[in-house]
Fold each of these.
Amino acid sequence: MQSRSPIRQCVGCGARRDKIELLRVVNNKGEILVDPGGRTPGRGAYLCPNMDCLDKAVEKGALKKALRKDISDEIYEKISEEIKHD
Ligand SMILES: [Zn+2]
């Protein structure tokens, strides 16, 4: 039996996409991790895997709000590295 994966919303552009097409970023006990497998527990946010959506999400404060954490340069770099790897 096949089941579709859940739909999630990008915090950057607001597009609704299949969860597996989005990059999950998670606040795991105060540490921001990029979680490609979607298995890390914690408060998560989803992004289209491109820099436009990351920049939008940071600029409008949506990522900060979703993760309840300030997006430092270090965190920004970590997420952009993951996007560039894709
Ligand atoms: Zn997006």
Amino acid sequence: MSLLPPSFRSKYRHPDPANGVDEVVEFRAFTHGLQPETVPAMMEAFTEDWRRFGVDAWNEVPNHWRPDSDDRVGWWSLPTYLADEFVAPLLGVDPGTCILQPHVHWTVQCLLSAPEVAARGTEIVVTDGEFPSVLHSVQQWSDLIDVQPRIVPSQPDGRPDVDAILDAIGPDTAMTAISHVGFTTGALLPDDDVRALVRATHRHEGLFLLDGYHSASTMPLSLTDLDMDVFTGGLLKEASGSAGNAFVYLRDGLDITPRLTGWFGDADPFGFNTQPRPNDDVRRRFLGGTTSVASMYHAVEGVDILLDAGLENVREHSLALSSRAIEHAERLGLSLRSPRAEQQRSAMILIEVENAHALCEYLKTKGVYTDSRKDAYLRMAPFVWNTKAEVDRAFDIIGDAISNGEHLDAPILSTGGPVT
Ligand SMILES: Cc1ncc(COP(=O)(O)O)c(C=O)c1O
């Protein structure tokens, strides 16, 4: 399995080393990606566009994203322009089907506010392993609309119970909303399972929503082939787009009118009419009030890097490094909580270790950044900016720590709260 060249690292800006180590190894792509090297210039471009053009920037700014093209862009068009140029290829779908969103929470809230969802049935099928932006939203809306959550328990290892979800889908299903990768398990739902769930949902005329936060940007996707209705995710993590940048894909022809649509998504926003009118461009109906422009200047710099590398190569690199990490873990006698099989493996792996918090803190003192869950799992995602040598170095340290117990006395270095 081939790796991206070590020079790939230089496409990203790396954190400052601390605690006397020379270099930091960042394995937390599942939380917040490293900063692409072009981001400082893009943020400068934002401040300059604001200064130079002021209000007129809403209509036109230089096309920093495609400098060689004649496409005209303005702040008004950025949510759809950047989605067409960068997010659609990232998801392998046609232009015109995606739009930038502030976060997944907003997208799910918009969907739930649409009468076309409630018209399809009285239940929304989810598992207890969904991220709160889905799981909590479904429960909150059940107080407002005549649609109840049908929460399917996960298996003891935290992975979705596909048979139980299939059993739960039926004539009452308005929507099925499932994670493509479990955020606590790192388990990727294989295409055959997704296809079976979509087919069952469609048989009962329900909508299918896939939360692809941890799959998009890490592998090629086949949403059209999967007959997906709605796919959502964010650019914060492996896509290195930072906060404020998420997206939604809506199947071509899906007519949906979120009651949360704001004036930015109206058919005639500057008519300031007394009645709202749904935009003909369905994806724009997922806009609320004034969009947060600054975040869009750093949204797709990382996507550009990944597309340039090729998503097949990104996936190969990620699998090659996680395979090496798994081999090291097994050599040390550690078990894997996340799947070993490649077709079920995401970019992140979880390794079972005792005193995982202490080990995570100890690794930090050595410049190796991972995270830990429930004091029982070490979570890591060796990604495109990581090398084989970094994985080896991390496991040398883990091996030493486990054999001599040094991590149990490690100082606590974390300054912030928990990370997602
Ligand atoms: C599966 C999944 N969905 C969604 C999110 C983020 O949701 P939001 O964009 O609403 O913060 C995360 C964050 O870690 C996640 O793991």
